[in-house]
Design a protein that fits this description.
The complex is a heterodimer of chains A (334) and B (332). Chain A is built from 13 helices and four strands. Chain A has 334 residues and is mostly helical. In chain A, helix 3 runs parallel beside helix 7, helix 3 packs across helix 8 and helix 4 packs across helix 10. The chains are: A mainly alpha (334), B alpha/beta (332). Chain B: Keywords: Signal.
Chain lengths: 334, 332
Amino acid sequence: MSAAETSPPANVAGRESAPPRPLWHLVLVRPETLTLVLLILGVIVASRLSPYFLDIGYILRSFALSAEIALVALVLTMVIIAGEIDLSPAANMALSACIFAWAQASGVPIPLAVLLGLLAGLAMGGVNAFFVIVMQLPSIIVTIGTLILYRGLAQILAGDRSIRIAEGFIGVDRILVLGVPLPVVVFVLAAIVLALVLGGTIFGRQIYQIGTNEVAARHAGIRSRRIKLILFLMIGVVAAIAGIMTASRLGSVRYDLALGKELEMVLMAMLGGTYIFGGRGTIPGTFLAAWLLVVVSTGMTVANLLPAIQMTVLGILLIVSIIATNFIYSRTQR
Amino acid sequence: MKTTLAILAAGLMLGTAGATYAQDAFSIVYIGKNTGNPYFDSITGGFVDACVEIGCQFEFVAPATAEATSQIPFIEAQIQRGVDVIAIAPNSPDALNQVLDSAKAAGILVMTVNGDLVGNEEHRDASILPVDFTKTGPNQVELAGSLIGYEGEIAILSATTEAPDQNTWIAAMNDTLANDPKYANMKLVATVYGDDQPEKSTAEMEALLANYPNLKAVIAPTTVGIAAAAQVVQSRGIADQVAVTGLGLPSEMRDFIKDGTVEAFQLWSPYNEGVLAAYFAKGVLDGSIKNEVGETFEVPNLGTITIDPNNMMNTQAELTTFNAENIDDFDF
C-alpha cells in the first residue's frame, strides 16, 4: 500500500535509495495506529466518566444507531482515496428511504419496495457519476448540488409528514446475530469485504493509483473513468441500503432522515487516516474511527455531559488526527 | 490486543454489576428539545423545586440540535443509566417510537412534557401539556380581536412551516375566523414563517408591514416571533396602528408591555409543567396515583388534576393573559 511500490527506483537518478523501513515502523507509524490508540483511550476515559458505560450490549446498541452512517463511510473512504468526494449520501439515504416508504405505504410488496429504493440509490450515484466523469465537474461542487437536490426531492415526495413503515419491517436493530444487532453485523462484514477488495485486489490497487496521480494512472492503462463510475454507483447503492436500514430502525421516514450526517461520514474517514486529497487511507482506519466516534459520543452522553462539551471534544479529536495523518504521511512517503 | 480483550471482559462484568445498583431516591431525567433554549429553563425550574419537596434526583439533558433523531442516543443513555422516569419534549411525533418502547420495556415511566407524540400515544405512559391546545387558537383570535375592536386585517407570524403545535393552533385560528360570526369583520391576509430565528422573524415582520399597509394586528404564536414583531413595532413607533400579540415569555416581553408597544399577550406557565410532572411521577411510582383515565389527584398550588383521555394532563384550563397589570407577578 505504500507509494514506494509505484515510484520508479531512486537509483536511476544516481542517488542512494533510502534504507527500507523496519517492520515495526511500517506497522506502528500509521494513522490507523493513532486511531486505535485513541479508541483504547476513549474506552478507558468513558468507563471512568460513567459506571454505566462499560457494557458490551449498550455499546453495540449505541453503535447500531450509527451503523448506517459508518457503512456509507466505508465506501466513502474508497471514493476519497480515488481522489473524489461524495457529500450527497446522507441526502441519498433520505430520498431512497422516502421512495421505499412511499412505495410500501401505497401497497407495493416490501421486497419490491426495497428494490425500488435500491434502484433509486443506484440512479442517484449514476447522476453524480455523470456530472463528475462525463461533464468533468469537480465532485465537491456536484455533490453539494445533488445533496440539496436529493433532499429537496425527498421533501417533495414526503412533504412535512412522516411515512409509516409496515409493522413487519420495523426493527432491523432488534434482530440479534450472536448477540450483535444486525446493522452492526452488516457493517463489520462490509468492512471485511471492502478491506479485502481495497487492500488485496488489482481493482483496489488501481483506486490508490488513480488517487495518487490520475494522469499517470491513465497512461499506465488504468481505466480511471470506469473505476470512478463503479465507486459512485457503489456508494449510491450502499447509501440506499443505509437509508432503508434507518427506516426500519426508526419505524417511520421523514424527508429529514440523516440530515447533516454527510459530515459525520467524512469525519469517520478523516479520523481513520484517509488523506483528503486522495491516494491514501484504509478501510480498517475508517472501521476503527467509526467505533472511536461512537465510543466517545456515547461515553459523554451516558455521563450526561453537555452537547457543547461533546462537540468540543469531537472537534479536538478531528484536528489531532488530521495533524497526525499529515505528519505521518509527510515523514514516511516523501 | 490483549489489553482490548481484558477491557472488554471487564466491561461485561461491570455491565452486569451496573444493572444491580440499588436506587434510593427515585431518579427523573428531562430530555429537552435542544440546549440553549430558555423556555426549558423554566420547566426545569419546576422539576428542581418539586424534587426538593418530594425527594427525587433530577437531571436535564438535551441534544445540541432539535433534529428528529438527535434525542435517540440520549434516551438510550438514560435506559442504560437505569433511571426511573424519562420525561421528554419530543422532537418528532414518531421517530422516537422504537426507543421509547425499549425504555418502557425496561420498566421506565415514560412521559412527554410540553409536547406529545401525536398519533403515537401508545409509545409513552402519560403526557403533560400546559393547556388544552385545542383552545389556544380560539383564545388567541379572541385576544387579537379584543385589541382591534374585532375589525380589520390581521396576519400570523409563526415558527417553522413544520412546527406541529403552531400548525395546530393556526388551523384552529383559521377555523375560528371562518366560522364564528363574532370575527366576521376580521380578515386574515397572510401567514408567514420566521423559523424561530430572530433575524428571519424580523425580516418577515418588516415584509408584512410593507405588503399590507392596512394591517391592524399580528398574532405571533411563538416566543421568538412575538419578541421580533414587538421589536419592529417599537423601533418604528407604530404601536397605535398595529397591535402585536401572540404567545410570549413575560421576561422577554416585560419592556414592551411597560412602554406600551404590546398591550397584551398570552402564555401558560412552563414552570408548572415541571412541578406537575414530578408529582405525577412520584405518585405513579409509589402507587398513590393510578395512571388511568379519570383518576384525579392534588398537586400543591395547581389544585386538582384530572387524567384526561389518552392519559393527558393539563396544568391549567385556559391561557394566562399578561398585561401591564399582572406582568410583574411573573418572572419566567
